[in-house]
Each structure stands twice: as C-alpha cells, then as structure tokens.
Amino acid sequence: SAVISQKPSRDICQRGTSLTIQCQVDSQVTMMFWYRQQPGQSLTLIATANQGSEATYESGFVIDKFPISRPNLTFSTLTVSNMSPEDSSIYLCSVEGQGGEQYFGPGTRLTVT
Amino acid sequence: AQSVAQPEDQVNVAEGNPLTVKCTYSVSGNPYLFWYVQYPNRGLQFLLKYITGDNLVKGSYGFEAEFNKSQTSFHLKKPSALVSDSALYFCAVRDTTSGTYKYIFGTGTRLKVLA
Fold first, then answer.
1. CB count, 10 Å around CB of A31?
2. What's the rounded Cα separation, in Å, for the pair A69 and A12?
C-alpha cells in the first residue's frame, strides 16, 4: 500500500483567489489522480496526472481552472484558480497500487467565501 | 459505458447482525470491482477487490464481497456488524476500455450500525 499526505488539510479562501494543494506519496508511482467530493457524496475525477506529460482532464474540468503539476514520481499539485463558492469541496489525490486498487490521501477541505 | 449503482442511500443494521451493502455494475469486458470505506472526516480506504478468481473475496476488517456475474452484482457483506463499521461505503469499477485507468464510483451507501 501507499501512504499519501496532502497539504493543506483545510482552508478558507476568498472568491477570486487561487489555492494550490500538494500531494506527496511515499513511493514512486506512474499515475496520480485528483478527485473532487462534496461532503457525504460520491467522487468525481478531475484529472489524471502522469509524470513527464500533460495531465488528462475529465469532461467539465479544464486546465486553466485546475492546473496540475507533476514534477516527479512522488509529488503532484492541483491548483484551484479564480475560486468561487461553487468550488467549495473536498479535494482528494490518489495513486494506483500494484493490484489495481487506489490509495487516497486524507483530503483537502476547501471553503470559498 | 461502464457504471456502478448503489441502490440504497442508507442501510441500518443492529450490532451483531449480518450486513449487506448492495452494488450492481454495468461493464463491457471483465469487471475490475472495488469497495472503499470512508469514515467521517477521513479519506477513502480500500477494503477489497475482485479482478479474477474466486467469486467470494475477503478484505479488511472482516468484510467480504460476492461477485455474481449473472446478476451483475458485487454486494459487500459482513457476518456480524460492529458499531465501528458505521461509515460511508463506495463501490467502484475500473474502466478497462478507455486506456485511462479511470475509476467510476457509485453514489455511496451510508451504513449505520445501531448498538
């Protein structure tokens, strides 16, 4: 299994600002995933980030709004840009284990006022 | 398109009783199926998976799930529920057709175990 940490764990931000969320894994992984989850609801995949290539975004998510960096095999960042209250959510990063299962970070709870 | 459905928003069960959390799937090809649990204010934890082999798979915390191909189901079960099992449970399928290794999650079922 992989151990994943995220920073910050929570933040309260003003509309129009940006927040960068960091995700650190304790082992080298090829793919990292970023999800969004409204509290108590299901997960929505934002993008898949491979090291050394551009992230692949899901329908409804664009790079200008959610730029992702993947500088090495253990680290990734997701930026939520020009935030609005609709961006208030929990943001989770994950990696895939050798058996196909995913391991998740603890999440970043974002509130936009 | 691949999908999973969790027909129950909430399941209530008395402590010590068996529990079942339902999941049905729709996939093309062989399914890669997973169960995850989310405790309050925490990230998701992997419970168990089915990729191939025995239809009954065992996972963490005494949970097991039965893969039923004819009914396209992958229900999560536990013989004797604990109050500490109260959490949000997600069924998921891995998309093996698009080449993106994308996961599709169900809407979640809240399990409440009553003392």
1. 17
2. 22
A96 vs A34: which has the higher pLDDT: A34
Chain B residues lying within 8 Å of A33, measured CB to CB:
103
Instruction: Give the residue from A38, A53, A93, A101 with the most B CB atoms within 10 Å of its CB, the best one to mutate.
Output: A101
Q: What confidence score (pLDDT) does residue B99 get?
A: 65
Structure tokens at A70: 């993947």
User: Residue B95 and residue B30: Cα distance in Å, rounded?
Assistant: 10
Q: What residue ranges in A1-113 does DSSP mark as E strands?
A: 4-7, 10-13, 19-25, 31-37, 43-50, 56-57, 68-72, 75-80, 89-96, 102-104, 108-112
Residue B86 · residue B78 · CB < 8 Å = no
Backbone angles phi, psi at A84, to 5 degrees: -130, 165
A-chain residues near B9 (CB < 8 A): none
